[in-house]
C-alpha cells in the first residue's frame, strides 16, 4: 500500500493544479452574470426640463428576438415625472425602419417589447412632448448582434479545455515515467 501511495503521489500532485484550474473554468462559465456597471446599451440625455434614460434588456439584444426597452423620465432634480407624452422613431442606416406613435405614459417609467430586425446600430429618436406642445427630440444609439455572437465564446472555451486535455495527455505520462521508482 505504501509503495502504491508513493507511486501515485507525484501524479496527484501534478493533477491537483489541473483539476483546480478546470474547476475554476467551469465555475466562472456557470456563474450568473451580475454587474454594477451601467448597461452597455444605455444612455441618458438632458434637454429642456427633462432627463431621459434609456436601456435595453438584455444589454445587447439579438436580432429577431424580443428585447425590453426601458425608459425613465425625470425632471432636472431627478424626480420622476407624473406623466409624459412620448413617441419614438427608429432608424437604421439613415432610414426610418419603425416607429411608435405618441402616447401618454403615467409615471416616470416605461417598458415595452421590441424586436430588432437587423444586426448593427439603430438610432432611436425619442420625441418628448412638453406641456406647451413643443417636441424635444433625444437621440440614442442602440446596438444589436446576430444570434451567433455567443457561439464564438463557447468555441474558444472549448478549444482551451481541449488544449489543456491534450497537453495533459502528452505531458503527464512522461512525468509519471520519470518519477517511477527504479526496480532493483
Outline the structure in words.
With 184 residues, the protein is α+β, with helices and mostly antiparallel strands. The protein is built from two helices and eight strands; from the N terminus they run H-E-E-E-E-E-E-E-E-H. It has helices spanning 2-30, 151-179; strands at residues 43-47, 50-57, 66-75, 83-92, 95-106, 109-115, 121-129, 135-143. The strands form two sheets. A four-stranded antiparallel beta sheet has the order 1-2-3-6, with no helix packed on it. The protein has a four-stranded antiparallel beta sheet with strand order 5-4-7-8, with no helix packed on it. Strand 2 and strand 3 form a beta hairpin. Helix 1 runs antiparallel to helix 2 (151-179). The model has no long low-confidence stretch (mean pLDDT 81).
Q: Any descriptors?
A:
184 residues, four-stranded antiparallel sheet, transmembrane helix, membrane, transmembrane, Immunoglobulin-like, alpha+beta, 8 strands
Write the SSE topology:
Layout: H1 2-30, E1 43-47, E2 50-57, E3 66-75, E4 83-92, E5 95-106, E6 109-115, E7 121-129, E8 135-143, H2 151-179
Antiparallel strand pairs: 1-2, 2-3, 3-6, 4-5, 4-7, 7-8
Q: Give a short account of the largest sheet.
A: 4 strands, antiparallel
Mean pLDDT: 81
Low-pLDDT sequence parts: none
Strand content: 35-45%
Helix and strand content put the structural class at alpha+beta
Kindly state the number of beta strands.
Answer: 8
In CATH terms, what is the fold-level topology of the domain at 43-143? Immunoglobulin-like
Alpha-carbon Rg, integer: 28 Å
- What is the CATH domain class of the domain at 43-143? Mainly Beta
What CATH architecture of the domain at 43-143 do you see? Answer: Sandwich
Query: CATH-wise, what's the superfamily of the domain at 43-143?
Result: Macroglobulin (MG2) domain
- Please give the share of residues in helix: 25-40%
- In N-to-C order, the SSE pattern is HEEEEEEEEH
Keywords: Membrane, Transmembrane, Transmembrane helix
Transmembrane segments: 148-172
